[in-house]
């Protein structure tokens, strides 16, 4: 069973809640969201947050909000919109937090939980070709590039796979 909360040395990874909406909206409606299809209009950003919250109810798992000392700073975790392998996603909502290892810490915790603890066989990662920071992150956490095209909603995305190691 997928844990509803994970903790790391500095972070709490928890289910998204309504009070996360202002921080998420600032990200989603701003330039920082460009690499994930934004900036979005307020209605679309709200719908995306609602989907993030509802995903847990519909699937029993989903993306966690990355919480630093009681402040929501981003999200990471699996998303099930692909016809096969769940997609691992990550985003820090405030670019000023980049370079501190926070996203890496969160992503490694989620990957370890899903692949090792829960026994998931694999996660797919889809990244905008121009998002060098996310490509570096993918390689840092062990994702292997694939020649597979991106999903129909994002065919130009570079795909990677994270796979559980054989025992």
Question: What this model shows, in words?
Answer:
By secondary structure, the protein is α+β, with helices and mostly antiparallel strands. It has a single domain (5-163), classed as Gcn5-related N-acetyltransferase (GNAT) (Aminopeptidase, 3-Layer(aba) Sandwich). 31% of the residues lie in helices and 25% in strands. The chain has four helices and eight strands; from the N terminus they run E-E-H-H-E-E-E-H-E-H-E-E. The protein has helices spanning 21-28, 42-59, 102-117, 132-140, and strands at 5-7, 12-14, 64-68, 71-79, 87-92, 122-127, 144-146, 158-163. The chain has a five-stranded antiparallel beta sheet, with helices on one face. A three-stranded antiparallel beta sheet has the order 6-8-7, with helices on one face. A hairpin with a 4-residue loop joins strand 1 (5-7) and strand 2. Helix 1 (21-28) packs across helix 2 (42-59). The protein is globular.
The helix/strand class is alpha+beta
The rounded Rg comes to 15 Å
> How is the largest sheet built, in terms of strand order?
1-2-3-4-5
Question: What percent of residues adopt helix (DSSP H or I)?
Answer: 25-40%
Average of the residue pLDDT scores: 93
What spatial form do the alpha-carbon principal axes imply? globular
How does CATH name the architecture? 3-Layer(aba) Sandwich
Report the sheet with the most strands, covering strand number, pairing sense and barrel closure: 5 strands, antiparallel
H/E series: EEHHEEEHEHEE
What do we call the CATH topology?
Answer: Aminopeptidase
